Q: What sequence folds into this?
């Protein structure tokens, strides 16, 4: 607790209710701060003491952080650690509290890759709706991440009854002892029936108890696609889904806040029951600012190492590089924090290797759960690193298109892969959704040359995000001079000598952030020698060692020859760890073109 004797005492809940509530009953954006941080700021500004029963002073241990199962976290820990998805949380909460008592509800679907914070967001919604200011109107029901026992709609409503009992027990076991007993008795009676459980009967029992509590149920359902797929097992015409939709469109119906890794046919196909049913919210990758805010909050809450925040600010290029590799994924950021506690290594690749070791148990288990054919497909896509066209994927996997298509659809629906328009090929190209999984796969599965490409990229990025340098190499000037005289042979010799000097000094990655290499790229493209330069980079393996720089030159050359549309398609076919920094280099080179 953080109260001390002071001249004036303020009740935190009264303060929040008075100052953070809008006229329409919603909450102001200032709720992005936890009650603990608000309290600290009040003490600092007003010299007041804030009275609260829920403010945490005890540091959170790393073991309390639910990395793979955030549902196990306590309410206090969940609220204290929740910073990454505040805007989505506030928007959803405001929309829910604006629902009238007997309204036809709006329902919500949260879409995000694995580790993007879907489950944590649902847990945060549960914690909030259990608070006293919402208890008189709502009862949140948080379900297990996967409802494997659901095989039809009646069993779904039985799960709702079970979740209702769990929610009441969590809130106040003694107060709701009678209601919990009633629910358990109802479940026993329904499951004893020799014939199939009647869906309508199960739903009526569920809503009877909710109405007796005068609280509207908010169903927080993860992996909604799994539930949809099981509602109509071995049934035609999606009868279970249509029946569920009908119920959810009634006045006073339960409100659904669901989540999934991707938008499936269940909600985007015109002929499906839940077409145009959900308001969809996408959880994108964290920005670098959100990424560092998450890490700083972890440092503040755990108080394990007080040097972490100063270290992060000092080593911004290192942190930006690791951010790029992790793809702005909150779960991977938490894993990275556990390594930060020990401090950065001297070599960035040691930090990258340590992070790969940290995620290995999770990624290995997930990958091995896949059927054999899907493992073969994921292997081919991950090993390609860039997006791979369908024809090339068929050649790599030795699978025909009619064998690939259903497996690719399943992998897309389950959030393993995504698509983009193929560059100079028909149809789509496929890439791994969770980018650090792709890095992990390359580091464990690839040959020496490919691993070198990953390590070279990490060194390149650390230079790119550092301070721009003005180091001059006379061989670059000699190469340009010979090109001006159209003597490509001598120009190539001088260019290779320039690279050789950098390699001998162990500074090849410095190409990322040296003014003269940007000017060199601009000059060769403007003078019509872009293809010549690219061929030399490819010949010497610099298309891998200096992949973002190579990509930037390639994009500008494609743009010059074929137009911006083709250049953008090519860029989107490259691995995002390469294309994002390439965009930075492209913009730097463009400055000389304007």
A:
């Amino acid at each position: 607790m953080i109260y001390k004797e002071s001249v004036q005492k303020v009740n935190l809940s009264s303060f929040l209710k008075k100052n953070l509530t809008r006229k329409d009953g919603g909450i102001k954006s200032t709720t992005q701060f936890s009650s603990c941080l608000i309290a600290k700021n009040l003490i600092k500004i007003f010299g007041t003491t804030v009275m609260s029963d829920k403010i945490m002073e005890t540091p959170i241990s790393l073991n309390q952080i639910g990395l793979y199962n955030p549902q196990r976290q306590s309410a206090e820990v969940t609220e204290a650690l929740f910073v990454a998805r505040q805007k989505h949380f506030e928007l959803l909460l405001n929309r829910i509290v604006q629902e009238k008592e007997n309204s036809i509800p709006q329902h919500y679907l949260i879409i995000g890759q694995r580790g993007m914070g879907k489950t944590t967001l649902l847990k945060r919604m549960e914690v909030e709706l259990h608070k006293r200011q919402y208890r008189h109107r709502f009862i949140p029901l948080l379900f297990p991440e996967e409802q494997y026992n659901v095989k039809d709609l009646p069993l779904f409503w039985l799960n709702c009854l079970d979740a209702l009992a769990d929610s009441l027990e969590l809130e106040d076991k003694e107060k709701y002892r009678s209601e919990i007993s009633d629910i358990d008795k109802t479940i026993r009676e329904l499951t004893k029936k020799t014939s199939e459980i009647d869906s309508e009967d199960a739903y009526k029992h569920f809503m009877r108890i909710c109405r007796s509590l005068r609280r509207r149920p908010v169903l927080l359902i993860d992996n909604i696609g799994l539930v949809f797929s099981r509602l109509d097992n071995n049934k035609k015409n999606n009868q279970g889904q249509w029946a569920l939709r009908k119920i959810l469109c009634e006045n006073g119906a339960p409100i659904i806040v669901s989540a999934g890794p991707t938008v499936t046919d269940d909600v985007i196909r015109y002929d499906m029951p839940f077409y145009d049913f959900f308001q969809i919210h996408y959880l994108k990758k964290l920005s670098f600012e959100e990424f560092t805010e998450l890490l700083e909050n972890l440092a503040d809450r755990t108080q394990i190492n007080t040097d972490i925040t100063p270290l992060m600010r000092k080593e911004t290029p290192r942190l930006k590089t690791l951010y790029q590799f992790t793809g702005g994924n909150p779960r991977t950021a938490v894993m990275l924090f556990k390594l930060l506690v020990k401090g950065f290594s001297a070599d960035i690749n040691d930090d990258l290797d340590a992070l790969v070791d940290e995620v290995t148990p999770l990624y290995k288990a997930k990958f091995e759960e896949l059927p054999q054919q899907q493992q073969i497909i994921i292997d081919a896509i991950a090993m390609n690193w860039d997006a791979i066209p369908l024809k090339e994927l068929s050649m790599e996997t030795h699978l025909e298109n009619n064998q690939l298509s259903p497996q690719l659809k399943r992998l897309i629906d389950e959030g393993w892969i995504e698509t983009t328009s193929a560059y100079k090929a028909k149809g789509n190209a496929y890439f791994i959704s969770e980018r650090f999984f792709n890095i992990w796969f390359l580091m464990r599965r690839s040959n020496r040359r490919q691993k070198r490409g990953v390590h070279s990229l990490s060194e390149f990025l650390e230079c790119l995000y550092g301070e721009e340098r003005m180091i001059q190499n006379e061989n670059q000037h000699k190469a340009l001079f010979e090109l001006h005289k159209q003597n490509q042979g001598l120009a190539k010799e001088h260019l290779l000598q320039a690279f050789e000097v950098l390699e001998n000094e162990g500074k090849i990655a410095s190409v990322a952030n040296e003014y003269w290499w940007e000017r060199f790229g601009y000059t060769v493209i403007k003078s019509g020698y872009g293809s010549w330069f690219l061929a030399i980079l490819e010949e010497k393996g610099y298309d891998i060692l200096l992949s973002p720089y190579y990509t930037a030159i390639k994009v500008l050359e494609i743009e010059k020859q074929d137009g911006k549309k083709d250049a953008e398609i090519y860029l989107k076919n490259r691995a995002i760890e390469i294309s994002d920094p390439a965009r930075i280099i492209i913009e730097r080179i463009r400055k000389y073109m304007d």
The two ends are 59 Å apart (CA to CA). The chain has five domains: 1-57, 60-282, 288-365, 370-442, 452-593. Residues 1-18, 27-55 have pLDDT under 50 and may be disordered.
